[in-house]
What we know:
single chain; 3 helices; elongated; 4 strands; four-stranded mixed beta sheet; alpha+beta
Amino acid sequence: MRTTWPWWRIARWARWTKRSFTTVFRGLINSIRNSGDGKSLETAWVVINVHEEYVMLRALGFRPSQQSLVNQNGHSYDVMKVKNAEDGTEQTFYFNVDIPFKHYGF
């Protein structure tokens, strides 16, 4: 019985895994971007869990510098002040966190 895979099977698996990860990652980013523009509470990006906020910011090339929670009109929002990773310019993004809050019973 063979206990190791041949190199070509490992290479094929690695390519498939990378393509699958890339497809899922792009789908996640696109679903968040399609939910709004993140520039105000009214157009906040909708996330399923808080980790998605950090994934989105990193994908856009930003580092979080400050986070605050705002409740307005029966909705909860994370307000993220961020810095551009390349030039350090500051910007603010808004995330609707109603779904994660409902999940955790808030």
